[in-house]
Amino acid sequence: MKIGLFFGTFNPIHIGHLIIANHMAEFSELDEVWFVVTPHNPFKEKKTLLADNHRLRMVMEATEDYPNLKPSNIEFGLPQPNYTVNTLVHLQEKYPDNQFNLIMGEDNLHTFHKWKNYKVILENYHIYVYPRISKIKGQPSLLNHPKVHKINAPIIEISSTFIRKMIPKGKNIRPLLPQKVWKYMDEMNFYK
Fold it and tell me: Pick from 179, 24, 186: which is nearest to 104 by CA?
């Protein structure tokens, strides 16, 4: 099975994440998309994150009605901070019959050369790229790499950061979240 791995802190998961993941599962060669909930991204400060179990729960709530979208806590048991290359090796050992692929926004492809062992990733895995509006001019140099596949997915400009900032201001951000995620966040008083 061809699995697309959509990495993120999902702090919180929002409808933009679901739209991209569903588009990848429905309109690319991928059979499933796994939301890999990252305990600690080496490029982000940890203090802004909700607890791992709460972010995983929100991903579970969000993907419950989508059979091709799956939550994954695979990184929870790996040493922190973790790097994508380590997760890929771990997944390949655990699920040898699956073919794993990365999913990333076009903006991340600009800085992919800074990732740990990025050449190893490119040699062994395909990357499915969705369009993003970026302040960086021009196309990423790796966009023409034979293992990089640009998918004509909708451009979604919703961010978890924006959602977190608007909640304490009392703004209605409910349309940006799956209903079950909003309900869980509201019950738990998150980001207030």
Answer: 24
Max distance between CA atoms of the chain, in angstroms, equals 48
The Cα–Cα gap between 123 and 27 comes to 24
Residue with tokens 């890929």: 88
The pair of three-digit structure tokens given for residue 175, joined into one six-digit string: 């349309």
The CA distance from 125 to 166, in Å, is 37
Q: What pTM did the predictor assign?
A: 0.93
- What fold is seen in the domain 2-158? Rossmann fold (3.40.50)
Q: Report the distance separating Cα 96 and Cα 103, nearest Å.
A: 19
Whose tokens are 């992919």? That residue is 112
Residues lower than pLDDT 70 in the chain? 40-46, 137-138
pLDDT at residue 80, as a whole number? 80
